[in-house]
Amino acid sequence: MFKKQKKKERSLFFVLGNIPKDYNNDQYIVSSLSAFYDSDIDPEIDDLESDPYDKHELLTQSLKSVKYYNYLSEKIGEKLNSKYDLKLSNRFWSIFLNSWLISLIQICLEREKRILRIIDKYKDQEISVVISNKKKWEFIDSLDFLNNGILNPYFNEWLNSRILEGQIPSKWNVTYKEINNSLKKNIIKHNKIKIVLKKIINFLAPRCSSIYGFTIFDRLFFSGLLALKTKISIIKPKELVKEDINWSFDFIDNVVNKLDFDYFNKLKKIKIKNNNSGKLKLISADDLFYDSDKIIDSAQRIESGEYLIGTQHGGHTYGSAKITGFLNTVEINKCLQFFTWGWIKFEDKSTILKELPSPYLTKFKNKHTQRNDKIILVGTKMNLFFRRFESAPQSKQWFDYRETKTTLISKIHDIDYLYKDFHYRPYFNEKGSLKDISFFKKKFPNLSFIKGNLHKEIFNCKILILDHPGTTLNIALAGNIPILCFWNEDYFHFNHQASKKLNNLKKNNIFFSDIDELFLHLKKVNNDVSSWWNSNNVQTARIDWVNEFAKNSNNWRKKWIQQIKKIN
Predict the structure, then answer these.
(1) Cα separation of 65 and 109, whole Å?
(2) Where in the sequence of the chain do the CATH 3.40.50.2000 domains occur?
(3) Contact, 367 vs 480, CB < 8 A?
(4) Measuring CA to CA, how many Å separate 511 from each of 473, 483, 546?
(5) 375-549 belongs to CATH 3.40.50.2000
(6) Disulfide-capable partner of 144 in 139, 257, 293, 347 (CB 3.0 to 4.6 Å)?
(7) Largest Cα–Cα separation, the chain
(8) Rounded to 5 degrees, what angle do the CA atoms 436, 438, 442 make?
(9) Alpha-carbon distance 377 to 411, whole Å?
(10) What is the pLDDT of residues 315-365, one digit of tens each?
């Protein structure tokens, strides 16, 4: 008798970067669906690791990262003070390190959680893994870090290697490789005439940045108003909560110290003006997020005793989102006051926030006039690479988001009188994203796409359909565009204040949790949208949202002037 041979088990591989060409679910382990970026392979979603956080954990981790940012920015500031022979305060460094450092902390917390789950699950099995060797990464600034770091598969492979390398289970088989980290810099070429005009305007309006909805006249006027305004009393800075993190790996030596930024060299030319203490500047997000020259200017102003007045420039993240740690750290908490589009009750009950009508949204006030029968569905970017803790889907959830959208389009596709008027507006920048245009072209070869000016299209359409909350939602409701909305509330998390307003939209068939119900309503109102949309209940629900999250007024300038005069 022959002995029955045991079936040889297939080797298992833990993929830290992009999946190989011979990928299959049985043999390869991935920690995140970002491994499928730019691949034509459709993963079996149910067989892959789940996303690491529920909405409560996302909030907890967001707050944790903010405390650590406050702690670490102070430590890095001390080193930079020593290196460049400076004596700048923590307030300067907290702005100067915007926004790459808080992004790095948050993505490392998320990557660490995923990798620790893989280690715990497979620690007793024989697994093969390829670790990329340690190298330094060079970035221009925060914008370059986003494009060539966070959204770069090679950087993520390197980052996963740094997290894993010191805690590899003994049964795992490890090999090493060199990784390509010679990044191609995305240098944006600007029109020389525009650059000159921009410099002239910045010179003429030094106390007012380019604000959403402002004309050149508005910039000049408000800059002049702030220049003439009496210096305000010195306000003691709010004490920041600082707290270290007990990482499972050496975050400082293995990651932070391996990153170099070109914009650090600008510290050699730092000049602090001491005669502007108590002056004010009106700013936009560009002054604090990604433009290194504007970030440095803002940091210098704060160091000299000036104060910043921030202004809202987007949708869901501002006001309706539950998770706001990134936004608070990078923008809102750097300002003496922050002008919102109507909301004031933040999760932390901040007194910084001031509700004012938006000059941007005022341009769209009641602007909708139906000139065609188009039904337009507008999508958003489906980020496969985790970028920050926010009230948006995690990587695996984006597949479900896209599948839900596919189901709705399929339903509309089966109804000729609806599909002939149906158009889809994809998100054209797919860097770091799940495929959008090519995916839906393959699914629906005769699908019509909106490629031109989105605002022009939606203000002339019959019905707008949104599958995500954001700026377009606020524009549509301010502009009185008939709109149907649907998204998973477990993916796009709303705070308590916004949830009540969303429920009001739901009661009046503006928002739907179920796409079957949305589809039935679309068929019902298609031939007479006006009767439904202009009914008293629907308009009351629309205006209720607008007053809270999309406030607008033809008298916005008067209200802004009044608020600025109150600051003392």
Answers:
(1) 8
(2) 375-549
(3) yes
(4) 11, 9, 15
(5) yes
(6) 139
(7) 102
(8) 115
(9) 13
(10) 999 999 999 999 999 999 999 999 999 998 655 455 789 999 999 999 999
